[in-house]
# Entry
Amino acid sequence: MFNKGNVTPDSFIGLTAEEVALSKEKHGDNQLGERKKNQFIKQFLQNFNDPIIKILLIALAINIALLIHNFDWYESAGIAIAIFLATFVSTLSEYGSESAFEKLQEEAEQTLCRVKRWEGLQELSVNDVVVGDVILLQSGEKIPADGLILTGELYVDQSALNGESKEVLKIPHGNALSSGTLSSSDFMQPNKLFRGSVVCSGEAAMQVTQVGTNTFYGHIAREVQEETRDSPLKHRLRHLAETISTFGYAAAAVVALADLFNSVIMDHGYNIARISEALQTPSFIVSALLHALTLAITVIVVAVPEGLPMMITVVLSSNMNRMLKDNVLVRKLVGIETSGSLNILFSDKTGTITKGKLQVVSFVSGNNVEYNTSQIVNKTELYNLLELSAVYNTTAALSIKNRRNSVIGGNTTERALLELSMQHTVINPRNIKVVSKVPFNSTNKFSAVTITDKEVPLTLIKGAPEKILSKCTSYYDEFGRIQNLSSLSAVNKTLNQMSSKAIRLLAVATSPEPVDDKGQFSNLTLVGILGIRDEIRPEAANAIKQVTQAGIQVVMITGDNKETASAIAKEVRLIKEGDTSAVITSSELSALSDSMLKQALPHLRVVARALPSDKSRLIRISQEIGLVAGMTGDGVNDAPALKKADVGFSMGSGTEIAKEASDIVILDDNFQSIAKAILYGRTIFKSIRKFIVFQLTVNLCAVIVSIVGPFMGVDTPVTVIQMLWINMVMDTLAGLAFSGEIPLSEYMKEPPKQRDEAIINKYMWNQILFTGTYTASLCLLFLKLPVFHQLFRSYEGTNYFMTAFFSLFIFASIFNSFNARTYRLNLLAHLKGNKSFIFIISLICVVQILLIYFGGSVFRTAGLTFVELQMVLFLAFSVVPVDIVRKLIIRMHGKKGYL
# Structure
């Protein structure tokens, strides 16, 4: 039916130089194409498209235009520094992160393969392979292109492409060339080989049918070059920028009109004649317009939170090291926050929910007694037989690496058996000799070895239970004694139960006589049946529960069949018994139209026999219905979906292209670490919101004071140098303070934020407007009421009074920072966890007190008495009880108030 003959170069003629040139002209070469990578400067300039940065640029331009008029170069310098730092740090963190395509190319250029050409056997770079070439393959080599197996037999690991860890048998089948018309991405085709797969065992010759970007691997290379949509944070910041700019421009227009009304009408006592005369004086008109414009621009500059971009960069960057300690490596800063916004998470099974490695988990003896691995070791005689089979009836071997034994070679089942023997004991040298071997093949489904132990021959057989059990007439009991085997019905029932739990079964037996490769044996003695599977991580079920309780839909994607996938999903409590509608196969998925899939998606929990195209489609459909979608993956096949997802989680043990296409690398391949990343993301978004509440509250207060102050006869309540210190407090220092907020488990009990949800919610607007208005009213009353002038030695001039006002503004902002960091009535809740907040706020207090007593003429300050300082602190502290009253009123209406 197929040719498993010798694979030798002489069996094939190969292409001539002319045929190679013709093939290359018609089908192209095996390179994956070219892509120009963004230069650092270009990427730096692109970051100026950030919506908040655009507003800052406008404010900076206006400020510079009026620099000669008001000499306010401190404000201009502050804005310019904020813009530069935010864009530069962001560019530095992202530069080089889009090199997935380059990784593919580098890997390809370093790989060589054996090609039979007309001139003879040649070792060529995979880039030089063309359609029609004959490639010779053997164990350990990577397949360089897509093609069809001509002769020989291979076991191939395609997990990098389809995510399925099971090795696949590849053999010639019928007319090789006509078979090429089958689906180009059907990994189960017995004669189809795919670029990027690894040969585990066997030898074969293949004929190349697709090269370069026409291969499945090349298709992935094209997909990872596609641009992705904006992150939820960037989407929300754009909306925030529109809100802030609208507020700022509206306030500027109002203050400009009010200033003109004051200059033209009020200053002329509402006298129409005087007003008319003034309007006919060009110098007056120019002066009035310039003053109104200057005041309007001041309002715009004060309203813009120039510290926000820098704070976001700081809060994202500062949490990278924390997350690294939890085995979460952040590659793209924005991926941290996005992980907290997830609505749906598509997770690989292998290596994430499971350990990603086959292990022996149980053993069933001939009398239907089931043991776990530690129990079977104590059954000395029975275990010795198992160990003999594991060590001698195998193609796997032990290798010493870093003074530790490791298992190499063989298939995954053989490695699992040998690792079992390594974990417990090592066979004592007993002068055991190997007499003969029968290797495993797909037809016979068994392997055998005949050994001599103290000159006594013994034949060990292992293979599929359906092949071995029917030939067994006896079994070994727990003491190693041979007993008659009367019935296997009870054993078969146990094995069926094990199969339903996604456990692979392997029977081990002995024969009194050597066996041949025909499998004609009888009168076997059963040692037992081994249960082998990729064990579920012990913490996976709780981690999945934690993520689902956070309102995130988890969908497990696997290359396993439907029954195996369902069994694992039940074990981790992803689905319930009898919940068949939550499990779907790739073929069933492809039969659904996009509209049907959108309706079915909320109920989906498992996708079995998944293809790479399924992952990308699921991401696209999720995004089309407004969900923030996450994807985990470790193989080449996962790269396009990782790139398209709002946040891609690659595994630390995965391929380089998967890591390069992802936003976050989970170093320990553990679903629990993904849950931690989600918690960090939510914490960071909370921190950003806390900072926005703090800064916009201070900005609103400053805007109101700037608008109303001049009409109250106070043109410059705060000097330029004082404003520089205030900006430093509001922007840089406050950003650092809020960046240290600790993750709280309660965040995982809140529903996820929708992608189009505004960054400032109703609760935040309530706090900003209420507390900002109160603080502004406090400042204005302080400036205008005579009682406050008298409290601060007005008889000695205004120095002490204006020092008190400057201090009031700073200390009110400091106390407001405590209001902003928690919705709780207890403002000190979890404060110990944020040591940076305590340090920075303490530093601001110390510096402010030093400025009061040592600032002098530079900061327009004069030393206050202790009683005066107490009065300032008392007035500033009033923002705390006022905000607590606000919180109590909200709770009285049945609302807790979340950030």
Q: What stands out?
A: DSSP finds 35 helices and 26 strands in the chain.
